[in-house]
Amino acid sequence: MGMQSDFGKKAAAAIIGGVPAILTSSAAVATEGTNEWFGVDDGRLLAVLFVVHWGILTLWLKQYGDADEDTDFFGEIDYTNN
Question: What is the Cα–Cα distance from 54 to 43, expressed in whole angstroms?
């Protein structure tokens, strides 16, 4: 009987710990009244949206992923007005 109460406590703790994560991530689904993810009612369109965005991200990271963030793109600002 002691094991059942331990299991019950662990299961309850896992459920209680998971509920906030599920509730906060549900805002990211953003159904926009269509009851579909991101307001898109066709899964193919949703797939294209994600693939295109990931493709653009991949291209950007290939070009600028190893850029040194310590250097300023426009150069340093000269505050001495020389």
Answer: 17
